[in-house]
Design goal:
Elements (H helix, E strand, L loop, with lengths): L2 H17 L6 H12 L7 H5 L1 H11 L1 H10 L4 H30 L5 H21 L13 H11 L9 H11 L4 H26 L6 H32 L2 H19 L3
Amino acid sequence: MEQSTTLIAAFLGLLEGLTEFIPVSSTGHLLTAGYFLGFHSAGRTFEVVIQLGAVLAILTVYSARLWAVFSAAPHDPQARRFIWSVLLAFLPAVVIGVLAHDFIKTVLFETPMLIAIMLVLGGVVLLVVDRIAPAPTYSDATKFPPSMAFKIGVIQCLAMVPGTSRSGATIVGALLLGSSKRAAAEFSFFLSMPTMAGAFAYDLYQNRDVLDASAMGEIAVGFAMAFISAVIVVRWVLDYVSRYGYALFGWWRILVGGVVILALWAGM
């Protein structure tokens, strides 16, 4: 693996970890950054597989809480309902992800202008919802009703379009359905575990024939950087959104998307 490729993989891994759990679209950032850096992984596998580093980061941060939930499940109806709610929310992504996988990877992932436009539109939506969301009914992410969790899962499928943001879609959905800002972010964290792990496993299987030693080296570097940076972000983001909401992320999306659109128009 060349040194320049190693540095690009490290940068993209850092970018993945910093953006995965905030509503700015990590995939949108990765794909547009890769486009301008001239980085293209076989089957776009790098961009999906390094997300496992972010998944392991959130598993590390939430390990004690997850252990408490699963150990209590045999005798605690609330714990079982929470697990069931997350699985219900995960289900729509399984169906849509499998059915539309090839179209997403070969068409949507290869359209930088679409990604940039979705960054801007998503930023506008985030700014509006941050201001007009109804007064919260739910302040604990582990106590969302299963029906509400399923609706959030359906809304999460909008993020199949790169630039939309998985966490952004789930957070906006949760806010509109009566969640507090902190609980919306936290439920997005919980839902990310099966969603991202499932995407990782399915994409790895689909692209098993195009992976080689060089690609695995790039993935390892990106994975490590994604893990480290995601741990830092997860520990910070809940306190931030509880105090200040999501406006910063909305403006960031509009800025980045606008810059990318101008760069594409300029033929860069």
